[in-house]
Write a structure and sequence with these properties.
There is one protein chain. With 374 residues, this protein is mainly β. It has no helices and 21 strands. The protein starts with a strand and ends with a strand.
Length: 374
Amino acid sequence: FGELDYRGESDLLTLFTRVKTNRYQNFPQQVPSLRWERFPHEIFDSGLYYFGYVDFARQKFSQALANPGEWEAIEQTRVETYLGINWPMELASGINFTPLVGGKWTHYSGECDRFLGELGFDWSANFYGFYPTPVPWLKAKEWKHTLRPILKYRYLTRLGKWPPHRVIDGKKENNFLSTLDLAEMRNVDDLDGQNVLRLGLENDFFAKGEKGKIRKVAAFDCYQDLRFERHPDGNGERERMLSDFYLLSELNPRHWLNLRLYSRLNWEHFSLEETNAEVNFLSGDLWEIGFRTKFLRHRATQFAINFCFHFNAISQLDFQAQVDGKNGKLLAMEIGYQTRWSGVWNVQFSCKIKNHSSREGRFQPGFLIDLAQW
């Protein structure tokens, strides 16, 4: 993999390439992908903002033929461009409304074109309350609660044919909240129309100590998607009208202790599909240790531990290990060292050891260097 980024004042230029180094894995190669992105910019002090990007990619991949052992090399050029306009407004104190409209045009090797139109809005409100009641176990003399309900609506319409050959940048399995913004969707080749309303409720709690220091002590967020238009989910069934229910929570009872919990529930079967828990202990700027557990229904249960030790301001040691929660078998272990050379170059060395059979080697050394950054 190779990537070069140039960040301007209001735009970003990215050059990316990927090369296949062995014959065991058949994945598409981008040789290269060139992308120019324009950050939101106001149109003549009108309150309207435009943003967009242009992306060029030359794809190469191999397709198996009917005869065993024979492959066909396929090359494909793809050009896509997106342009969006939004109008952020403050309807009242703490109440924000942003309508938006956009469109994405994609062209494939002179064989087909496709257009996706986007229409939607973002709405959010901010409410808060102050409570002078002391909370001894938090060492706080007063605390604050902020409540933020949100609504996001997106309607996408598709015109044109499906891409030629096979899907390259398709939808990957994702257990987290999917993006609703057309500009941020990365499954370029299998995008389709959609009609979705996202409802969310975000809660933050802040405590003020005896010395006037304010810190965030807790957070609780929940989200739910309502699909007015449903598509096949990849298993031959249509998507449910109500998506999974997502819960994200965080608790910081002490400055050195952090607890996080992520859960995903299926409303149709009233079952817990996934839950991830994480505990982190901090000791100032010297060290950090964390424990994680991951439960994914019918597929995986894992435990993990991570440790970080800071030698000084520019170097640190990292260690993490993953364990199968069913049989206690070590899945992977990684040790890394990060430092800075000459006060400018960020360098990272790593070594990963896998304890399972695969075409990849068990011992995987790694090296990363950041030569320039501005």
